[in-house]
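To whoever is covering the structure queue this week,

Two jobs came back overnight. Logging them here so there's a record in the thread.

Job A:
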Amino acid sequence: MENEKSIGGSKVEAPGQNKVTTILVNAREKEWHEKNINYDQVIVLAFGSVSSDPNVSYSVTYKKGDNEKPEGIMVKGDDIKVKDGMRFNVTQTNRS
C-alpha cells in the first residue's frame, strides 16, 4: 500500500492512517476506523443491517461533525467526514 513503510522487514502504516475514531450512534459508543462514513454504514451501526423492505425508511441526523458542516441530515448516497465524538441519531419507520 502507498501509505505503508517497511521498517526492519515489518510493514508500518504512515502516522494517522490507522486512527480509531469514537462516534455515538443512538447514544451508543462505536469505534470507526475510516475517515468517512456513509448513510448505509450508519444504519448498520444502529440496527445491524439495512432492511430491504420497501416499506421501511430511515432518518439519519448528526451533530458535532467537522467544521464545514457540524450538523445535518444524511440521505441515501451521502458520505461525510467523521470526527471524534460525532453523534448520529437513526430512526426506522415502517409505512403502512
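Job B:
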Amino acid sequence: MQKPEIPSDEQIRLETLRSLDILDTPAEEQFDRLTRTAKRLFGVPIALVSLVDENRQWFKSCMGLNTRETSRDISFCGHAILGNGVFIIPDALADERFSDNPLVLNEPNIRFYAGCPLRAPNGSKLGTLCIIDRQPKNFGNEDIEALMDLASMVERELAAVQMATMDELTGISNRRGFMMLAQHSLNLCTRQKIPATLIFFDLDKFKPINDTFGHEEGDHVLGVFASRMKIVFRDSDIIARLGGDEFVALLNNTSEDHAKEFIARFIQSLESYNREAKRGYEISFSHGIVEFNPDKHSMIKTLLADGDLLMYQLKKSRL
C-alpha cells in the first residue's frame, strides 16, 4: 500500500480548512444534495464530500457509507488532492498502490474510485467530491466533466462558508476567522512548546482620513494596510482585520524580539508606500506586542486583550 504524500502547501492548506470551522459539523442539505446527485448520476453506491485533515479524512457529506471518517494514511482522497485533475482508479485490486489497502480488502471494498479536488478561493485543495463503486468501472471524458461540474458546485458552497470567516473588504480573515485559526495555532504551540507572539494594530488618524477624503478613501487605506501585511508577514503567520481600523497578526515560532524586527520591516513598507502614493495623508499605526505565555494565555481572547491593552497604552502615550 502506498501512503499519500504531503502537499507542499500543507500548513496553509490545513489553516484554510480549519478556518472554515466545518470539521465535525452536522450534515447539511446543500452538500448532501450534491452527493445524492453524484450517486444517482454515476450509478454508484457511495458518494462523498471528503475533507482531508492532518491525520484523517472526514466526510462532510456521506451517501452510502456508515462511517464519517477514516485515516488519512489509507485514504484515496489524500492522493487525489496531490493533483490538479480528477483522480481515477478504475480497479483498485489491479493497482499496486491500493491493492492491499484496508478499504479495498475490507469494507467498503473499494474497486472503482474517482475524486475531483475541491479548491478554496486561495487555491488550497481541501478535499474531494468523490464517487466509489464496489465493481471496477470505466470513466469517460463526459463523466469526468460531469464530476468536475458537481465539484465546482461543492466549491461554491465551501466558499460561502469561508466568506463567514473572511473580511470582504481586505480579503484577509475577519475576527471570527482569526479567533478560530489562532486558537488552533496556540493549542499547537502549547503541545509542541513553540513560541508565538501577537501584534495588535490600530491605525493612527484614520477618522480624519475618512472625514477629509471620504469613506471610499478610508476603504482604500484598509486595503493597503492588509496588502502590506500580506507582503511583510509570512504565510505561516495568521493576519486578520478585527473590525474598523483594528488589525492583528499572530506570529508562530517567533519571540517578542523577533516580532519587533517584523514591525520595523512593516513600518518601512508603509513609509515606502506613503512616499510613492502621495495621496495627501500618511498611513501609520500604533501597536501592542505580547509574547504567548501558555500559563496565562490558554485562550486566544486573553492574548488578544493583552495586545489591545499594550496598543492602547502606546497610543495614549503619543497624545
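Note for Job B: DSSP finds ten helices and ten strands in the chain.

Please reply-all if you pick these up so we don't duplicate work.
Q.
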